[in-house]
Hints:
This protein is mainly alpha-helical.
Amino acid sequence: MKLLPCLALAGLTFAQNSYLPADFASLANSDHLAALVERYSEDRGNLSRFHNQVWSKNRITQLGQFLKAWQNGLGTLPFDKLSQNGKVDYLLLKNKLAWELDKLAQIDAQREEILSLVPFLEPVVSLQEARQRVEPLDAAKAAGTLVEIDKQIAALEEKAPKLNPAKTVANRAAAVTSELESELTEWFNFYNEYDPSFTWWAGEPFKRLRKRLPAYSKLLREKLAGLVAYTPEQLVEIANREFAWCEREMKRASQELGFGDDWKRALEHVKNLYVPPGQQTALVRDLALEAIGYMEKNDLVTVPALAKDTWRMRMMSPERQRINPFFTGGEVISVSYPTSGMSHEEKMMSMRGNNIHFSRATVFHELIPGHHLQSFMTRRYMPYREAFRTPFWGEGWALYWEMVLWDRGFAKSPENRVGMLFWRMHRCARIIFSLSFHLGKMTAADCVGYLVERVGHERENAAGEVRRSFESTYAPLYQAAYMLGALQFRTLRKELVDSSRMSERAFHDAVLHLNSIPVEMVRATLTGLTLQPAFTPNWEFYPGIE
């Protein structure tokens, strides 16, 4: 049967068409650029879902053309005629486009760095891209490609003892190899059994390669990367100053508990104050209600009834706890607690790491006024600004509340204070260990040791935290964003609330209504800062740093 050619095969490709909407100018509103940003988000979404091979050279080219077209279009808009919100939207979109282009350039450079360790990257990507274009498949040729990739990896494994790549490059190559395994499996499953000829040719080579890829990824990670890379020295100094404050407060709490200045003994005491099996969910419920009640009683932020009544809870799987040993949240809070199948050591580490007082600080961080309230409000106010979301706003907001509630005396006992301080120390440590790793100054094992010795983590929990930081899609600055974003919000609160320019509730509601944008843009909006198209970040939110 003769197949009809798809549009791509007929010569109609994305690169031959303009990426800018024909109605680009009419989408701009003088009060805001919501329609324009929404169109950008939708168009970019379509393009990135089609070109979904992150390390594909073709994807880099196509997305680059799209972003440059939007950059040129944005430059034609009359900036001076826009309202303050419109100017903020303009600058956010301008910054987003520049950031996306920089990110593409970084991916392209990283791609070149890993090709000697992952020479089979382009062959795997090409198989997937041909499938997406619905090109006719030559099963025998595809099988030959799988066999050739298998031989390449075998040769690399043999040369491994002589290889000496940078640890960050080896770690990235390991992660990319794992991604390619998933891509290859998706490609194979698309044809397998549906095309008998394909199964006959490619079944056995794929089975061999499916075993080879994880083993090679493990070799890269453990032998070349050492298990498992950006901040100026100023950011590390900020982290060290905040850590020193935490340590002083830990000693005060330790003295109240009768342990003198030995705050690690106080920490051990608090870790052992966990609930018995079966009671963790009740604890989380009570802590959530306590935090919500405190918000409402003190008129700190608007808590819509629907947000208050519709959050949900689930238990975190043992497998997920290996990567993230602590609670995660949003509309659904995922609760960590050991199961009967875990070893005794694993059970104790989980219970100690999610004890009553650690949990008390975690629950309001994840639910209300933290991530659940955030996500509830951002879906209802300026939702188009989701395109500009940043962890400095998202993670910074949740940690900021830990600071606010500390200052307001939310901690009722020295044990409560130890629990809150542990997490604050943890956020400082994240800046230091994660960026030191990315800069090649610490290995993954060093990072685990740092969390155990300096912060007081359980070793397995520390290992899980390091895995979460380096074996996922987090950008290098993501872990630093918690503390740095919180410090930005704290400084902005001093500027607007402590000066009586805004009430506490009005300030917090305004932040949520502006959606997840860089905190400096929140400040520009709330203070009426004069904005220009060439605006660049210049807010010194942490005084005393040279």
